[in-house]
Amino acid sequence: MTTKVHPVSLPGGWPEDSSPRSAFLGLAPLGVSGDSFEDLASYFRRLGELHLMRPWTLAFRSVAPMIVGMSLTSRSHLADSCYGLSMNGVTEHAAKWVEALSALTLRNDLHLRTLLPLRDIVPALKLLSQTERYCPLCYSDDECNKRPRYNRLLWSLGCVQACPIHHVLLLEVGSLGSDEGRPFFLPGVSRLDGSSLAGEETGPATCEQSRMARMAADLLDDVHHHPDVFAGNCNPAPFLRFATDTLFGGVAMNFAQHLGVGKGELSNWMNGNVRPSLPRLLLIAYCCGCAVSDVILGNKVMLRRVTCSSTPAALTPRRRNGAGRPKEVLLTELQAIVHSGAVRNASEAADHLGVSDKHLRRLAPTLQGMLVQRGAESRRTNTVARREYRFGEFNRSFSALAAENGFLPSRRAVHQDVLKRTGIQFRFAEAQEFLRRAHTLVNTAGEHAMRRPSAGRPKRGNSPAADL
């Protein structure tokens, strides 16, 4: 059972009729419009700098206990998310971050620094970007205006590819990976060498990319300033029917071809069975020459045809298209890769042929069974190899500590030495088993040493007494 920890609102001895005091130092989010709103992840990182703490430490000590209780493992997992973009999304995880930070800072506007206002307006599919991105010219403006560099909420939208202010493409933030640590965590600072990202070079964006980025920024503005208009009033179906009748004479097929989507997909939107995702809403608004808010609210406004030169990307691209090839060709290729050992299991063979696992099983059940068995053996071999490698590192520290101290070390001492030397951590049961194995090796080596004859002592069969 988890117990939530609540921040102290009044210091000890403070008058009870006084206004509450925040647990965190006061820090206001930056940005005043849809193209400049600061996102919550950037705000929290700057909050950590204000408290002279790394974001992970601040999250682990102050935020995580309010969300997941006092479990060290749960607190550690939640603190790890402070370096990502998940707190900017529309999930319950983001809502808990907003609730905790609102209680710690006594601010009531932090939910507007996430995509939570869009949760009931657009589907969550393809909404949040999977990687952190930035506009170097926006960082340069921050430096010129003597303000901290910060990340814009607009950059967290996966469908936004350009900066609507400078009309340049967004760049991805490079990282050394989780195993190398994160020495630089502030927005606008490279995680590779700590240099400013304001000097990075980027390419110009197309008119379509800049226009769609501006439309997404306007949507954030509209939701920010008029949340009551969108409450329970989001239905694009009337707009789509109106656009079909106005621009395409009531022919839905022509409208679908103009958007570059399938007729069935457009039909589901018009019938209200499926809500268009934000990338599709941007596409509809751009091709109809209106605002995204008009599409979402079903407004009947003045429309005009706008041709989109780029083909809309598939939201769930199909990775397998090999089922259309002749069966004989697939069988020949499958036999070749199986006998050559180019694949380790059935999934790799299916991906190589461009078919599904189910199709591969129907195509060649015998070969598929052979690949399944090969994959199981490969997994068992890899598991044993990983386990032996971990035991080797454990035994190495065990032997070194035993030789240094003159006695057999404890499990905790060995664990700490391995963690310091390699970064490997062991579960309690695993460490106990490795400790028993290490003791067995020591005892076995001791028995062999006692049985081994000494160099200066003659063997029993060659002693003078034996000759008598």
Automatic annotation (TrEMBL):
GO molecular function: DNA binding
Location of the HTH cro/C1-type domain: 255-295
Record Pfam families: TniQ
Annotated CDD domains: HTH_XRE
SUPFAM superfamilies found in the cross-reference section: lambda repressor-like DNA-binding domains
Start and end residues of each stretch annotated as Disordered: 445-468
Protein name: Transcriptional regulator with XRE-family HTH domain
